[in-house]
Records
---
Amino acid sequence: MVSVDLERAEGALVWRVPRGWWGLSSAAVGGGLVRPRWVLNLGVGDDFTRTDLDRYASSRADGLGVSGPGTALLTAADVSQVVATEVDGLRVWATVASPSRHGRCRRSGLVTTVCPVGWATCPAPSTSWSS
């Protein structure tokens, strides 16, 4: 099995994704069914008001030394407090903000997870288009 490891950086978590892997993400930047080369979990503070999320994530990705297509999660949780576990070969990382400790999530809390799941790699099917 190919390993996907977490790299910690100031205010960010970085995963470099093996070539050819698919990702399914609800991330604001690079979400959907994608083939990312990296995944970022970027911590943002209560004062974060930017609306140019693609530009912000691209700038952070450049500063973290990742390039190509990627997925960026923006979280109000403290990414330095990431928790990881592994069960039967499935690794999961989570950042969690308690409703009592974080102003943005007073009612329900916040959980951000990254879960690489591997299975047999198959070549992508060819697609033909006709008009």
Note: The chain has one domain: 6-114.
---
Amino acid sequence: MSTAEKATENGPARQTAVRTKPVRLTVDMTPVLRRRLRAWTGMAADELGLVDVPAAEVIRALVGRLTDLHGDPELRRALSKAVMDDLQAVQQ
């Protein structure tokens, strides 16, 4: 039965609420990968003149660039290929 049919049968259909609260994501990393991320965030902080660059902000920025359909298509393709290559290597 479609939503329209349910709406007619049971009164108006309820709309799904749009989630506005951030969703927590927990990621397990190898110690080496974590050290590399910390080294990169330290370098980025130095270059940006900041005390710290949180790893969460780096991950948000990477996901944003990877999924930005209106951004640089070459960058998105390069990131997508690199991620897919890494995923394939893990599967082998």
Note: The helical segments are 3-10, 31-48, 55-67, 73-91.
